[in-house]
């Protein structure tokens, strides 16, 4: 069931997208390659993407040399405030008025769905690094959307699958009541049931609600062994703190199905220790990730999240496409991206499938105990590398109209 207000905003925003489509451009349109970082700069997701994603995009441009095909590269940014109407309006203005060639981050699933439709109508590219719903590569897929970093399928099969194997076979969900939360709940419930477990229901809370206590107490009264948090960012941090304060964790385990390193930092290891985390990227994976993270830290005083690293990667990948094809024409660049294996600080031999899903390895981590951490931001122990072919929904199961299943 969709939230009524959200459905109205989605419908209105998609209607705004129905405008004349510009003809394909040759070479570099407007003599500049302009990339927009559309993110949450002021709300509960701002530590996940936010200004950090803007910094990551700027770093990618600098590492590329500041120019492509002899033309300057510019980064612009805006705060969508987690509102689909603002996200759609900004995307339309960027594409039509300001000459933006590619939008990245789009840190909110409801906003990302609408922006991808705006982009498709205008034959412009959007590379989603922050939103998670698998709707972006299923019912709402477009020829101009790349779903880059992670999705609810990979989270459900990573964290959810690990906890079921540990014996957590009876679940209930605390779910953010918008497309991301619904998708994460649905995907994780499928994993639990496929393993022979039970799902007892869900308590759905408004996005960025102030009080989660009533919802948690309702779930505490159930016979669930696991309360799965199908929310993110500030909502997840609030839920974990509230569950501890209410004593819920004395009887039930809390599974944060989407947990970022920024959340661990805010919670502290004493509270977060032992939790499983599914991540697309971690700063301490190897020498290359550590070198990038230290440069990022020097600018922000925080280690990058997987969304911020994904934004760096998306900008790098797009610029390589412009250089390789000799144009910023979206069709040419998308054809190149879907026919090329990609390697950068984010991963190796990554590929964009027909449905727009970027396939790469994911990682199952476990949060360290305070005594195990050697330094600030040293938070994760690697438990398992999840190969890309396993981490994401099989293409054969895709509901994307572009996928040829013959």
CATH superfamily of the largest domain: Response regulator
The secondary-structure class comes to: alpha/beta
Using only C-alpha atoms, the radius of gyration works out to 20 Å
CATH domain class of the largest domain: Alpha Beta
Q: What does this protein structure show overall?
A:
The chain is an alpha/beta fold and 406 residues long. The chain is built from 14 helices and 16 strands. It has two domains: 4-14 and 29-150 and 287-360, Rossmann fold, CATH 3.40.50.2300; 153-279 and 362-391, Rossmann fold. The strands form four sheets. The chain has a six-stranded mixed sheet with strand order 2-3-1-4-5-6, sandwiched between helices. Strands 8-7-9-10 form a four-stranded parallel sheet, with helices on both faces. Helix 12 crosses helix 13 (330-338). The protein is globular and about 60 Å long.
Q: How is the topology of this model organized?
A:
Layout: H1 4-17, E1 33-39, H2 50-64, E2 67-68, E3 71-79, H3 84-96, E4 102-105, H4 109-121, E5 125-128, E6 145-147, H5 152-165, E7 170-176, H6 179-194, E8 198-205, H7 213-220, E9 226-230, H8 233-246, E10 253-256, H9 261-267, H10 269-272, E11 276-279, H11 287-300, H12 306-325, H13 330-338, E12 342-344, E13 347-352, E14 358-359, E15 362-367, E16 380-386, H14 388-391
Parallel strand pairs: 1-3, 1-4, 4-5, 5-6, 7-8, 7-9, 9-10
Antiparallel strand pairs: 2-3, 11-15, 12-13, 13-14, 15-16
